[in-house]
Specification:
The chain is an alpha/beta fold and 413 residues long. It is built from 16 helices and 13 strands.
Amino acid sequence: MRLLFLTPQLPYPPDKGTRIRNFGLIKELSRRHEIGVLSFAESGDAEAAAELGRWCRVLGLFEAPRRGHAERAWRTFLDPIPDLARRLASAPFEERLRELLAGDRWDVLQVEALEMAPHWLAQRGYGPPAVLDAHNAEWILQWRAAAIDLRAGRPLGALYSVVQAAKLWRYEGSAVRRAAAVVAVSEPDLRSIRRVGRPRLDAIAPNGVDTDALPFREVEPPGEMLIFTGTMDFRPNVDAVRWFAARVWPRVRSARPSARFRIVGRAPTPAVRALGGRSGVEVTGAVDDAAPHFRDAAVYVAPLRIGGGVRLKLLEAFAHGVPVVSTRLGAEGIEAEPDRHLVLADEPEAMAQAIVALLADRDRRHQLAAAARQLVVERYDWRVIAPTLDRVYEQVARSGPGRGAERGAFARL
């Protein structure tokens, strides 16, 4: 088939969440399909676009619009459209999309995440059937963020999230109902999506990794390094490391004075950078390759309290052979068994005890790492995941543009 992907970031290099998912799917699907990509991009992405051309045709790159704080503030309360749907508003992007749909035959329009939905919806039903690849159930993320902010005494943040959640409930529901198919990354996400709008056709294709590119380490490093990875201006990640540094880290450090905590990822906020001033804590900022940091780690921590979807960071840790301690929310959507593939703990004392126990038990770390690696190879490699999309495309193509499809017509991954 001929697939046209709309992506919020150039899907190369695969160095962070959205890019990793988009590139993983494009690379694997390109074995069987012809793929075009229309994307937003950053300055300096031309070389990366040329490299991406090994797997697809890059049909247009557009600079992401910039919005001021004043515009976002008034839109928060006066605009019925959620902030997420305004994030990448671009008339030139929509014009290029119209040209591509008018001038060429595409079997499927793949809309990568809700923030790209406005460009598809602006076509007003013209063009091929659309598959919405829902990276998250966005409305539930905002409800969870509101709850965290209320408990932390941040009423303005909570108010913003409540307002956005209400807008997303309507907008996300409309997009879900209008898509020919919706692909969710986990069963919990799919349940949340169905609450706002019943899809015509739905499936689960979780986030994944290229296990060939993430070799399992055979030798554990010396030392007691804990790591966390992610984009460090992303609200759930900022909340996670601040909570961990304030509530969990002092307990770990008291029991294991030689332990260190490294926060790895681009664009750390001032609040995250300030954590580097604490004893034993390091903030790296952007890195060219996270693999050396995984190789340095004794334990990977995922103290996430906000969010949804399937955390690529956990899958990467599993693939590299780094044992994981996570909150239940952090591991949501991954079919991992507690105490077999990872350790779960939600409260500060319980998480600190779990980490300290793992640091003291090399055999236990090896057992967890080996089981988690096997899980990733069997369930979360792109070669296992991509065939679900093949089945989606086949059914969408049979239903044709504008015609419905049976709901839940094939088995879940």
